[in-house]
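ok so for the tutorial part 2 we go from a plain amino acid sequence to predicted structure tokens. step 1 is just haveing the sequence, like this:
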Amino acid sequence: MTRAALYCRLSREDEGLEGTAESESIQNQRSMLLAWADRLGCAVQGIYCDEDYSGADRDRPAFNRMIAAARAGQIDVILAKSQSRFTRDMELVEKYLHGLFPLWGVRFLALVDHVDTADPAGKKSRQIYGLMNEWYLEDLSANVRAVLTHKRRQGCSIASGALYGYRKDPACRGHLLPDEAAAPVVVRIFALALSGLGCAAIARRLNAEGIPSPAAAKALAQGKAPGPGLWSKATVHRMLTNRTYAGDLVQGRVERISWRSSKTRRLPEERWIVAPASQPPLVSRAVFDRVQALLAARARSGKPGAPHPLAGLVVCGLCGHLMEQTRSGYRPKNGLPTRYFRCRTARRSPAACCGQPYLPLAELEKLIAGRINALFEAAASLPPPPAKAPPPGAGAGQRLRQALARLYQDKAAGLLEEEEFSALRTELLARLRLTEAPQPSPENSRFPPDAPPDPLPPGRELAAALIEKIVVWPPDETGNRRLEVFWRV
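step 2 — the prediction. this is what the tokens look like for a chain of 489 residues:
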């Protein structure tokens, strides 16, 4: 007996076409397909239902289970109310109806639009149905975007949840009301900023007092475990710069790349949609503007620069989280602050990482430079393989490459400044390109095949290529510090 799979689907885009309730429509589809399978004399292998999933969604759970069963040879025919119930994506029409199903020996039948993949003459009709369904989704996406943009400009909050400090107004859709629990926290954050505290100091104080972060508060409101979420400098900064807290609803910071994909991209600030005085403010305009002036003054006083070559590679041995570069207020005789790596979690909340691991930057650079030099020396000490007769001019290129390798050793050891290193590197590369000899092959080189290629990467890329991670532990009772380096080579 023919084994049949019944597929039912409904999404919000089809509510106006299918009925008043999704569950009722699914029940109707199931009833129709069961009766049809009985008339065809098929044995129902399974009923697969996806409710509240778009026809263009490729991650429908029941759909994917049905495809897996068809691939495994457990299904002979798939029955659906219409081709659009199966998919509205033209690529999936071609992939399955005209590609894989014939290879798997699976027949597809649609009740309403009389689709039958066993009929070769109906291929063009199926393709036309696929195009029409795809056009329908494109038009629907454009219409939805236009409506949402209009609502944003009117000052209606269209987010699924309310911004921290607010709750949704049950009497007016799109309107926000101050949240009795979170709004005082927002007001206090602005007050702390006015008192002169920076974003990191505010985050540490909130964590020390055990105030749930926005992520933790959301989880608690949903009846879930709050998790390890902590207040961070970035979270506080986002709140202090969000105009919504002054009453100007800000939306449209991101947009979906395409109706086909759920991926989003951030938009520049000039494209954000701001509705002035559309929501109840939590702080006055004067307070908000004063905080922006303080943040701008702090930004001007800083000296931003390129990230350290080891940034993102140093990990706390106690909690497993990244360590970040920071500096102390103490200035030694040279007038420069002491820089060091400190556990990011411990910086936010000392109770979350009790060991308070840290490591001075100069000490870390010295240790890593020594170990990198040891790697280079070990590679250079390897006996060379039997040499082949080099082509004319190959010796000059070999010497230049060795000079480049030594240059990197000196840079890693801190013997060269960045400007001096860049100038010497540029000169050596230019001389290397002028040589007419071909590049030496790995078997004729004294260095391993994964040595830095030409052009050699800068220090940050070199560190990422050599080092997987650096684990730092607090000093033991004798003051010795444990450091583990995990190499990629």
